[in-house]
Amino acid sequence: MKTFKCEEMMCGNCVARIDKALDGEGIAHKTDLDTKTVSIEDDGVCVKAVELLDDLGFSAVEV
After folding, report:
1. For residue range 24-61, what is the model confidence (pLDDT) as tens digits?
2. Residue 29: enclosing H or E segment and its boundaries?
3. How far apart (Å, rounded) are the C-alpha atoms in residues 19 and 53?
4. What's the topology of domain 2-62?
5. Among 12, 35, 37, 45, which residue is least crowded by beta carbons within 10 Å?
6. Are 48 and 2 in contact (CB under 8 A)?
């Protein structure tokens, strides 16, 4: 599991957009608005997940 900080995540709508994009690709994850993080279960799909986050306008920095 890898966790990424997304400082641009500000509200529930942000979480919903992230969840929809990652769920749509079948990427198991946990999104936490309080810590502004997205944890990706499978390290093998992290590159794809970061690309999706970037496409949505979220800078994902591994923590």
Report:
1. 999 999 999 999 999 999 999 999 999 999 999 999 99
2. strand 29-32
3. 10
4. Alpha-Beta Plaits (3.30.70)
5. 12
6. no
